[in-house]
Amino acid sequence: MVKAEDVKKLRNKTGAGMMDCKRALEEAGGDIEKAVDILREKGLAKAAKKADRIATEGLVTSYIHGNGRIGVLVEVNCETDFVARNDAFKKLCHDIAMQIAASNPQYVSRQEVPEEVIEKEKSILRAQALNEGKPEKIVDKIVEGRLEKFFEENCLLEQPFIKDSDKSVQDIINEYIAKLGENIVVRRFTRYVLGEGLEKKEECFADEIKN
Q1: Closest CA to 159 of 71, 94, 90, 98
Q2: Alpha-carbon distances of 16 from 9, 48, 52, 130, 136, rounded to whole Å
């Protein structure tokens, strides 16, 4: 059985995705140094070294789903126009747009989640744990665990990839970084749902008429 702390250590050491680290440790029998070598052989450890490189090229990709009921625009950046024109990069952008349409993330990464949203979520999760009768001394630990689930559900990069739920979206991006040899960054996205928000606008309009 692979220890969670070893997976984190390996990830910090290599920058590879969590599931890639877990698989490498399983293959290495729990030996972290051997797991590093396995990730290097697969090219996955290289992704971390490219993470600080500036990515200003790329594509804005659109995806329409459900006979026009859901639409997505996503900007994915790479380092060169050469990679931006690569079919593999285009496929990645398309898959990310599909992910957004299917899983409705609210943010690209946890770093984008406003502090007030995190604090509100913590407050709700704490109240839930106490209402469930959990002992006060372990409530904070329970809240942290459930907050991780919140990030996984709401942050694009941490969501399970729709085509392979054993990997996160970030894991998939790391694989493409290793394959294409450039840093790849999801910059921003917009998700439209037909009719979304119209009721609120109609209510506001009705209030304006009354006043």
Answers
A1: 98
A2: 11, 7, 14, 36, 36
Token pair 């899983």 in the structure block, residue:
103
Burial class of residue 211 in the structure, from the number of CB atoms within 10 Å of its CB (0-12 exposed, 13-18 middle, 19+ buried) = exposed
- Give CA separation, 123 vs 6, 109, 148, 194, in Å: 30, 21, 14, 33
Beta bridge partners of 190: 73
Give this prediction's pTM. Answer: 0.70
3-state DSSP: the chain helix, strand, coil percent, rounded to 5?
A: 60, 15, 25
Alpha carbon 174 to chain centroid, angstroms: 12
User: Among 26-35, 165-174, 191-200, which is the least confidently predicted range?
Assistant: 191-200
pLDDT band at 4 (very low <50, low <70, confident <90, very high): confident
Residue 204 amino acid letter:
C
pLDDT, tens digit (0-9, with 9 covering 90-100), for 84-98: 999 999 999 999 999
Q: 88 by DSSP, 3-state: which? A: helix
What does the alpha-carbon distance between residue 121 and residue 184 come to, in Å, rounded to a whole number?
30
